[in-house]
Amino acid sequence: MPSKETLQIALNSQKAERTAPGWPQPNSGRSPTLSTLSEDKEAAPSHSGSFRRPFPPLVRPRIGPARGTLGLVVDPVRHTSSGSRLGNYKAQESVGRPGADPPAVGVRSLGAGLCGLGALRCGCWCRSPGPVLSARTSGARRGVARRWRQVFLGGRAMQRAAALVRLGCCPRTPGPWGRSQSSAAAEASAVLKVRPERNRRERILTLESMNPQVKAVEYAVRGPIVLKAGEIELELQRGIKKPFTEVIRANIGDAQAMGQQPITFLRQVMALCTYPNLLDSPSFPEDAKKRARRLLQACGGNSLGSYSASQGVNCIREDVAAYITRRDGGVPADPDNIYLTTGASDGISTILKILVSGGGKSRTGVMIPIPQYPLYSAVISELDAIQVNYYLDEENCWALNVNELRRAVQEAKDHCDPKVLCIINPGNPTGQVQSRKCIEDVIHFAWEEKLFLMADEVYQDNVYSPDCKFHSFKKVLYEMGPEYSSNVELASFHSTSKGYMGECGYRGGYMEVINLHPEIKGQLVKLLSVRLCPPVSGQAAMDIVVNPPVPGEESFELFHREKESVLGNLAKKAKLTEDLFNQVPGIHCNPLQGAMYAFPRIFIPSKAVEAAQAHKMAPDMFYCMKLLEETGICVVPGSGFGQREGTYHFRMTILPPVEKLKTVLQKVKDFHIKFLEKYA
Prior knowledge:
CATH superfamily of the domain at 297-546: Type I PLP-dependent aspartate aminotransferase-like (Major domain)
Number of strands: 16
Helix content: 25-40%
Number of helices: 23
CATH topology of the domain at 297-546: Aspartate Aminotransferase, domain 2
Structural class: alpha/beta
Distance between the termini: 69 Å
Largest sheet: 7 strands, mixed
């Protein structure tokens, strides 16, 4: 039986052979040159017995004469049982010169399969004809051809032939071979009934059968705009001309992807932990070696490649607790309340997972700020919880107003059970830093309404405004007295990805959970144990963040200099971004007090809104897509974070180097002015 590769070679020759010089055109009245198929001189002696079980024909590719077309040549079929062979038959030339080279018996549309050995004369010029056999072998010919077709037209080959028959390849007109094509098609249909097509089994997983909660998940930070950016990058790599030379991914807070250099001390310790042989190298400072040895000794087999406890490596949890105590001015932290996580996202998802319960009006409601980081809405959708929006005050630098919290919770009680209050401080995407008074009001509100507090504090090192200071919820909670500190349940989160470190790829993080019921604590550990443990390398990176060099240690000066340089540059870029955006007509940007994003409000004309609706896009998505296509700058539309009805924004990171950031801001300015002119 010919291989699939051989069949495919022949099938691919259809176009070339159909248009080759000297090959007949439809209904031209002449046929291609045919030659004789000589009998196999080496075959066994003639035998008149039945042709029971011939081997498949020997099929070899060859080039057709003077045409350069690739097809198949079918050799005589041998039969070895009882010393018999197919009778002494010879193909006769119907037209053409005697002695010519045999043409390729093409199977381009599997016509040769149907016409092979002269069995079917469909007469359609688009199928290569088989050799014409003499009448004296017609009986044997029919038997051989029938078996040959059964062997040849197997599997996908038969399916393709069936498709050709269904499509009606041959018109109902006489062909150059003097035979009605429709009768050949009928014979082809009969042949194909030998092995009917198999129906393909329906897939188990489809959009209709998949988990509807997963289908409802949306994550704008890596949504359609980012997919489009990837397509444009591939086009640039292929040399397709654009009005820009690179795509600038300002959609995500990936510091090192934007050119920020790693902190030397952190990478030194990680290198030593990853390849302990370097501990003998004089190239590494002793304080880095000391930390690496301590971390390795706490790992199974003295290796980062081993599993850790589900809650995390014990000595790292101790270091996290000591860090929190220092940060909060002596407020105690218990290592048993520390859970190391795969970035902060893992901790947030885990806590929400254990909080969500109930059904109908008793289904858990989760209060989140609008604008919000899309992780929250995504996890809420995945867990089929109820999202309860409360709006930050854009006119007051995105401040959190407790009256807005009261409005949101009262309205939510009509259709769910509000149980969780999420705070992002400093804010993402809005960049605000909550005042101590605001935090006190929020804690009191949570105590009053019996809400579980979740404080996302991954940007705690990123505070730029001289009038602002980071206050942890844990510290304020304890300073409000035992009535609050002993009763309000609080989970707070931190990460290696932000701050001055920018180590997103290590996926290191922790959460501190306080005032948790002892039985729930056991359930939380059980839930965490399902994923075994967070990456131990990420745990080690988190340890270096919370246990950096201190004055008097060899690496302190370099570490301190690098840290201040990163944070100082971010502060300059925050001010630069705010100032330049506010110089553009139709753009307003609140002060960037912290974090690493700008979230400017943009004016979009009504004609642009109509154009967006015609493209079935949100207006700010339409704006951001145009910005990407015309400038190569990738930002995230505000609709992906949530915003008040009738307002439009986009989020842009301030992480690019200063000169590149200036270029980005200038391009946005030029684009926005042209956009307003076009749709005014």
